[in-house]
Each structure stands twice: as structure tokens, then as C-alpha cells.
Amino acid sequence: MRILGVAASAAALALGVAGNALACNISEFSAEATCAGGKGVIVVTDKDGSGTPAVVSVFLENNGADARKVGTQEVKGSAQGTTVTFAEDWQPNAVYRIHVQARGTKVDNDISPNLTTPSTACAPATPSAPATPSKPATPTPSASASSATPSTPGSATPAPSESQSSTAPAGTVSNAPSPAAGDSNLAETGANSNTGLIAGIAAALVVVGGGAVFFGLRRRGASNGR
């Protein structure tokens, strides 16, 4: 009986130690202030291997008192660690209190010590440069388009084709009246002859001859009167 009692006591002690090892503990929680996308965040990690659900609350401290509640989230831990993230634009050297309350356990404590943020604020994220739109390709005019372009003033005038020549084709009847037969001789005796000059000389000779006859007759009459 004594041996059975010792064995039972050892088994109970082993079960108690194992139970305590699997129970949720405040030491399995940790917090960190980091930056994400140029903004501040607070990350709480739960490494409770038992997976006991816990409620995590974050408070901003001011002179040892809660100044503002940042938020509350529920987390179910794991041996590898489960994290919950609180968006908080924290200031350098700010102090935050993180409280953990696990369901069905005696865990209802703050993570010790309180979280103090880094002395340097998060740098704003650098915006990416917009892509430069590509210019559309300029179409190259084809040879046919360039040949169809009208010529500018002062350019050489294209020579008329044979069909546009002003020379009348052979055999074309003219609308002007043809000269009558014999007109060519009359024209030559008119404007092109010396008829006027000859007529003038003849008239002068007639006058001279008449004058000579007149004076001759007068002298003869005077001679007869003596």
C-alpha cells in the first residue's frame, strides 16, 4: 500500500507540473513599437503553447496614468508565436501599458515593464514616381501622300502633256475667212506700191507745164501788140 501511495503521489505531481507547463502565463507575452509604411504600430506577440484565448489591451501612459486607450484585440497564442498589431502613430520615447487577460486562467496582468517607443519617429514613406507616359509614334507620310501634296507658289509648273498642247492638230479648219482669189495683187498695188508718189509728181508736172504754156502765150501776145 505504501508503494501504491508513493506512485499515486508521483503521478499527481507529474500531472500538476505538466498542467502548469501548458497553462497560459504572462511571461509568454511581449510587445514592440515598430514602423509599417512610414507609420507607427505596436505589435504584441503571444507564445502561449496551450492556445488559450486572451484579450490584449493597449493604453498610452502619461505620468504613470492612462491617458488614452489605443485599442483591444483578442489573440490565441501558439508555440511559434501569434501576433496582433495596433495602428498607433506613436511619438518618440512614449510609454504604453499592455494588459493581458486570459480566459479561464489567473492571467490578468500587465506586460512588465511598460513599452517605451524608440527615440526616433517613423520616417514617412517615399512616394513612388509616376510612370512617364510614352509619346505616340509620329506616322511617316507615304510616298503617295507626298506626291499628292500641292506645290507651293514659285515652284516649277509642270509642262503640259501632248494632249494639252496649244498647237492645233493638222487638218483643223480655221474659223477665219480665207482671202478671195486675186486679193493679194490688189493689196500689193495698194499700200505696198508707189502710186501716191507718182500721182504727186504728175500733178506737179501738169502745173509746171500749164504755167509754161501760160507765160508763153502771154509773151507771144505782147510781141504781136508791138
How would you describe this structure to a colleague?
The chain is an alpha+beta fold and 226 residues long. Helix content is 28%, strand content 25%. The protein contains four helices and eight strands; from the N terminus they run αββββββββααα. The strands form two sheets. Strands 3, 4, 6, 7 and 8 form a five-stranded antiparallel β-sheet that branches. It has a three-stranded antiparallel β-sheet with strand order 1-2-5, with no helix packed on it. The radius of gyration is 68 Å and the shape is rod-shaped.
Q: Give the termini distance in whole angstroms.
A: 232 Å
The number of helices is 4
CA-based gyration radius = 68 Å
Order of helices and strands: HEEEEEEEEHHH
What does the average pLDDT come to? 75
SS-based structural class?
alpha+beta
Uncertain stretches of 5 or more adjacent residues: 11-21, 180-184, 186-191
Overall spatial form: rod-shaped
**How many beta strands in the DSSP annotation?**
8
The portion of residues assigned to helices is: 25-40%
The largest pleated sheet is described as:
5 strands, antiparallel
Please report which band the strand proportion falls in: under 5%, 5-15%, 15-25%, 25-35%, 35-45% or over 45%: 25-35%
